[in-house]
Amino acid sequence: MKVLLVAILVFLINLPFGALRGRERKYSFKWFLYIHLPIPLVVFLRIYSDIGFALYTYPILIIAFFGGQLIGRKYFPCKQKDKKKTEADCL
């Protein structure tokens, strides 16, 4: 049950980062940063929730991580068509 709750939190944490990543040029510094910034939060959640680093938790949380990134990119598009739009307008 804890793993499912942590997976949902990981998914929700990655939604805004996926939206921000979607507006950046692929392989740029910010694109790379938006992928890797949530990782310390995920590690903190793993430690705080006492699920630890058991082998069976990795596939579940990896799917939640990249699922949040992909859904955030697709459903919260942040493509800047006009220059007046800011990062806060995307979310």
Summarize the structure.
This protein has helices at residues 2-22, 29-36, 39-48, 57-75. With 91 residues, it is mostly helical.
Layout of helices and strands:
Elements: H1 2-22, H2 29-36, H3 39-48, H4 57-75
Helix pairs in contact: 1-2, 1-3, 1-4
What does this structure look like?
- The chain is an all-alpha fold.
- It has one domain (2-79).
- It has four helices and no strands.
- Helix 1 (2-22) runs antiparallel to helix 2, helix 1 (2-22) packs antiparallel against helix 3 (39-48) and helix 1 packs parallel to helix 4 (57-75).
Give short descriptive properties of this protein.
4 helices, 91 residues, mainly alpha, elongated
Cα Rg = 14 Å
Number of helices: 4
Unreliable stretches: none
Question: What shape does the CA trace take?
Answer: elongated
Number of domains: 1
Count the strands? Answer: 0
User: Helix proportion of residues, in percent?
Assistant: 55-70%
Question: Average pLDDT across residues?
Answer: 89
Order of helices and strands: HHHH
